[in-house]
Amino acid sequence: MTHIILQITAGQGPPECQWVVSRLAAVFREEALALGLTCTLVVDATETSTSLLLSVSGKGCEIFAANRSGSIRWIGKSPFRPKHRRKNWYVGVRPVPGAQDIAEIDDQDIKYQMIRASGPGGQHVNKSDSAVRATHMPTGIATLSRDQRSQFANKKIARLKLALIFEERKQSAQDQSRLELWQRGRKLERGNEVRCYEGISFRLRRL
Predict the structure, then answer these.
(1) Phi–psi pair at 67, nearest 5 degrees
(2) CA torsion 188→190→193→195, rounded to 10°?
(3) SS3 state at 42
(4) What angle is formed at CA 174 by the lines to CA 169 and CA 176, rounded to 5 degrees?
């Protein structure tokens, strides 16, 4: 494999973690360049990005990704709350699997539109009609990829962005289900039990 996509995420962390996400992306790009790798942002980063994607390509990109996957800590004072005592901030990094592996999206529901690439990038932005917008017709969710030099690559990235959006929604729904289950469990614990067991032998106690 000579190409891999990394996701850097702040999870549900505070703005400081989101800030670390954008800064860490810049650090990764510098480190990749020093190793002779190509590392570009799949989506534009801001100081409030909760997550972003980096496209890493070149010989050794798998090792580069493996050495950076997991929890990453940043030690420093909050750039937003100078008096805040916390100095340890964590973000997560993980390689993103193929779109077909993380979300069940019917390709027949996706409409692709080829448009002219524009925006920042100077000579690195292809001036031909290489940018691709992917729209999931049943939901209206749309993504855009313009950073790659071929329509095929941009189409693949746009499809991947859609898959990630649906995957994040799926994960959020699962997290909500777990929360509701836990809350129901707490309600049950506070209620009047109908049976009670005790000890490792599960001895039934009389109520």
Answers:
(1) -75, -10
(2) 80
(3) coil
(4) 95
DSSP secondary structure of 122-144:
GGGS--SS-EEEEEETTTTEEEE
pLDDT in tens, 5-53: 888 888 888 999 888 888 888 889 989 999 999 998 876 555 566 778 8
Residues 6+ apart with CB under 8 A from 20: 10, 74, 89, 91
Other C-beta atoms within 10 Å of 65: how many? 22
Residue 129 and residue 50: Cα distance in Å, rounded? 30
Q: Where do the domains of the chain lie, and which CATH numbers do they carry?
A: 1-96 (3.30.70.1660), 97-207 (3.30.160.20)
Q: Are 93 and 68 in contact (CB under 8 A)?
A: yes
